[in-house]
Amino acid sequence: MNILVTGSSWFIGFHTAKKLLEIWYNIIGIDNENDYYDIELKKNRRNILQWFSNFTFYNISIWDRENLEHIFQTEKIEKVCHLAAQAGVRYSIENPFAYIESNIIWFHNIIFLAQKYKIQNFVYASSSSVYWNNEKQPFCVDDRVDHPISLYAATKKSNEIIAHSYSHIHNLPTIWLRFFTVYWPYSRPDMAMLKFALKMKNKECIEIYNNWEMFRDFTYIGDIVDGILKSLDSNFHYEIFNLWNDKPVKLLSMIELLEKSIGIEAIKKYLPMQAWDVSATWSDIEYTKKKLNWEPKTSLEEGIKKFGEWFREYYK
Description:
13 strands, seven-stranded parallel sheet, alpha/beta, Rossmann fold, 11 helices
């Protein structure tokens, strides 16, 4: 089985590709390894994947449709796991064009080729940010998400709409995975867990909004990868699944666990809420449990302990 994993040098793409390689699928990884954050972190992830003889890597941009189509032709792609995207809610305010290019144009390039070459399954990472204008919690896949409050969320919702049209017109099987605050080793430095840990290491101040009244549904990467693999092995025509931990915790509680795990006390600063943010995220995963036969298995305490072990070793 030949599976294309886009964003293979990024956080979730790396862990997904690594697990698939261990199962012994042939993985074709694509990543342009841009400078959105530390390139060395991306290269280190890729170097680990290149230990596997069943891994093939292409350092190209999905913008390059000609070379992308060449990969579909020569590698005989059978399934696509599309995890490459321009991530981050805050950065979409600073650099909106990056999101239109990466999350709209590039996305269409790959889904177009997926249907052209009759891919068996197209699994894609959406985002919990599509829910962020909804007052009802927990968030459910049946909830309407027609009024996104960030450009990032708008591009992800657009992807879901485009995918629905391709499933309807071209009979392309598509599965959309909405996950939030995924953490563990080799995570993105702009995400809460690693961002806070690095600031603590450098004795910098951690800024927390809404005066600490923030709740987040942290999800362990191993559980996320399990959901992605189950999606790749499924035969749904069109589905949307929430892959969350279903146990929102106060952000201060997470920081206390992090302080204990890495052995450094955080310097904290209280700030008011930002217009594009939400005070709490909580997902209903009953539909995912029933339909995908998936549920999270890793507690936040266990996950942060593992994160701390990796952090201390990687950052000395």
